[in-house]
Amino acid sequence: MTETQHGEATYARELPVGILGADYSELRIRQEVERGDAVSIGQVVFRDRKRPEIAFVSPISGTVGDISMAPRRMLSVFEILPGPAASAEVETGSCDDSSAAAIRGTLLERGLWPAIVTRPFGGIPDPDASPDAIFVTATRTSTAAPHPANVMDGRAADLTRGLEVLAALTKGHVHLCQANGAPALDDVPSSVKISYFPDRDGQGLPGTHVHRLFPVHSERSVWTIGYQEVLAIGHLFRTGRYDPFRSVALHGPRCTDPAVLRIPLGVDLRVLVQDRSDDDDPPPDLISGSELRGRPAAYLGRHHDEITVTDRRRAASGARTGAPQPLFALSPLERALPMNILPVPMMRALSTGDAETARRLGCFELLEDDVAPLTALCTSGTDYGKCLRDVLDTLRKQTV
Asked: What's the whole-number average pLDDT of the chain?
């Protein structure tokens, strides 16, 4: 493990990783490798069965471990164990950026297309889709997350190149969303619009940025992507090399050594925190993401830049036990969404599965992260993220 600027520690490639089905809605896979096969960094290990153009690649060199499936043959975890491989890394030389189609093909084949989230509905965009705008989230979704200015420091070339690549994929604008007071950027493409948001919880979410700048609806779609993924895209197109590392904040009440670490995508959290958490009984809970918006997990989620080491006795968001209680319109609920969406009517529509009312109230603008505060604050014990997913899936079927 080596130290980098700003005190970050970069792990060598000795940690197991897992590619998680939970990061991608209803993902069925077509394997390119089998258990025990040697793989290299950036090598394709499986594809989306329905959309085989979308490739998923290994973040480390090693061997394929367990491949676990969820019900209905959906992917649960595709594990890769560290070790030697035929080559340390998959090299392609220069990436073809001569056209939007060539750029699209590179992102699809080199494993960076799954970094993109489409709105409305969420999930990975179709390989031939074209958004009306693209949003780059260069803000923190919680105050414990790594500061984007620190992560991007010294990587201006990667950022600029990544923005240029994204700009070729839409006829609209690329919106770079930063926190108030962020350093000014030079040499950004003319199609990139820079907007600023308060550096506080809720204001850093992609959904908030989209709502304020370019709201989606049934006839308008946008893509969102995190700034670290844009850096990885820029690095790929500059160097031809796949960058699997992301800066992630490790923290929480049971964490004995908080730090910002440079670790591979999908790292095994159990191995990572072995020497960084207390050994009291009971063992700590490991959350990929923040305590509010994350999920209990054994591996780091694709879109998370935090790992929270907390306590099993915590009141887990969305995991209450016992019979559901009545919904009370508490005043904090009215301020829970940083959008012009009425929380309590939306909660009622989601909890009853009233898709049409939820649509009229603005659910097309929401994904699970956006409604996490409603789950945490509501007295009914309802998981509004799950309810929203059910409603969005219903509405998506109606629009096909």
From this structure: 90
- For 120, the token pair is 């409305």
User: Model confidence at 146, in pLDDT bands (50, 70, 90)?
Assistant: very high
The residue extents of the domains of the chain are: 93-241, 245-310, 327-399
The amino acid at residue 74 is M
Q: Which residues does residue 20 pair with via DSSP β-bridges, in sequence order?
A: 77
Task: List beta partners, residue 190.
Answer: none
Q: Which alpha helices (H) appear in the chain, and where do they start and end?
A: 100-109, 148-152, 156-167, 206-213, 227-239, 269-272, 331-334, 343-352, 355-361, 368-377, 384-399
Instruction: Please tell me the distance from the alpha carbon of residue 297 to that of residue 367, in angstroms, as a whole number.
Output: 20
d(CA 296, CA 160): 35
Strands ordered across the beta sheet of 55-57: 29-31, 44-48, 55-57
Distance (Å, rounded) from C-alpha 347 to C-alpha 257?
39
Taking only the tens place, the pLDDT of each residue in 337-348 is 888 899 999 999
C-alpha distance from residue 186 to each of 17, 34, 206, 312 (Å): 36, 46, 23, 46
Match 């480390």 to its residue by tokens: 60
What is the C-alpha to C-alpha distance for residues 13 and 398, in angstroms, rounded to an integer? 45
Residue 252 binned pLDDT confidence (cut-offs 50, 70, 90)? very high
Q: Which two tokens stand for residue 385?
A: 């993220």
Supply angle C-alpha 388, 144, 231, rounded to 5: 80
- Which position has the token pair 């096969």? 37
Nearest CA to 297 among 232, 224, 248?
248
DSSP H or E stretch at residue 296? strand 295-296
Q: pTM of this prediction?
A: 0.92
- The correct answer on CATH 3.30.420 for the domain covering 93-241 is no
Cβ atoms of residues 127 and 118 within 8 Å:
no
Render pLDDT for 199-251 as a digit per residue (tens, 0 to 9): 877 899 999 999 999 999 989 999 999 999 999 999 999 999 999 999 999 99
For residue 257, count CB atoms less than 10 angstroms from its CB and return exposed for 0-12, middle for 13-18, buried for 19 or more.
Answer: exposed
Alpha carbons 88 and 252: distance in angstroms, whole number: 34
* CB-based contacts of 236, cutoff 8 Å, min separation 6: 95, 106, 110, 112, 242, 243
Q: Taking a C-beta distance cutoff of 8 angstroms, is the pair 113, 166 a contact?
A: no
